[in-house]
Fold this sequence. Notes:
By secondary structure, this protein is of the alpha+beta class.
Amino acid sequence: MNDLLKRRLTIVLGLLLIVGGVGTCNKLKESRTSPPRTEPPGQTRAVRTLTAENGPVRLSIPITGRLRAMDRMLITAEVGGTLQRTGKAFREGMTFNRGEVLFRIDDGEVRAQINAQQSAFLRTLVQLVPDLRIDLPGQAVKWDAYLKSVPVDGALPELPKLESEQERNYLAGRGVLDQYYGIRALYERLGKYVIPAAFDGVVAAAGVEPGTIVTPGTRLGEFIAPNSLELETAIGAGELSLVKVGDTLRLTSTEGPGSWTGRILRLGESIDVPTQTVKLFVQVEGKGLRDGQYLSGRIEAGSLNEAVSVPRSALLEDGALYTVKDSVLAKQPVSILHQGVEQAVVQGLSDGQVVVTDRLSGAFEGMRVAPVKP
């Protein structure tokens, strides 16, 4: 009986503990207050800007390039042999006048070949003249005189004029024409053993010394005319209409003082695909200029009225610009009057409008920004 009573009391107490625990949990849950949820503050991006001011915009095309001699000889050996000493050493910085010998290659072997073939040619003529007196008596006197004019060692005179097809065929059959033109070919080759200066100039690079054995194709040196210089540069394809051959400009060097006058000589015919630029060549004259020197300048190409100049990188794909109003981005359509490599000239902006000059990735209208003037 006592055991039964104890068991009932235990069950009742357990139920009371469970009910009390549930009630306590509900009271604790009701007493908890959630803190108010706040949205994270919006991020503001700093952007560089300019303030639009409409007015005349001068179209100025900046250029930079390297001077290069227009008269330039890249000297390469056409024949083989040993380089000989000349009256003046071919050294970098040495000057030569037009016609002076730059290089001389030993030509003893080819001269010996000429003497041998010219002697054989004489023998052929000696045998030819008596036969002509019989076969073509009217031509014998002419060829006898030519035989007497041919030296064993010396320049070969021109052939007499062939007056008939019969005479031509007669000489060809005896091998006279073959021998004559073979000797002339050797004389042409002989001329390649001496390399003269084609113009007054200076040695820009020297690669070989006297005594060196060279072969056909060996690079011997470089010879330039220092007073005939041109600047090679490039301009944007959209700027071609603003320049023409004969325009002048001022050029300066970052390596020292001085300025020089340049004149546009010619324009390239093709557009470079990756850069969308066209080559421009400018003739430059004056003292203190050297081959390989870098110069920079600007081509002045007139002006456009009531316009604003902005960085080309600020233009969007649809040709509009981003402006800033109340610290948020707004898209502003504009008319593009001119696009250069670096700058673009536009119309459609109001005076005082704040224009974004940065190229923004992931930008959109309404984005919060903080304008920063350069």
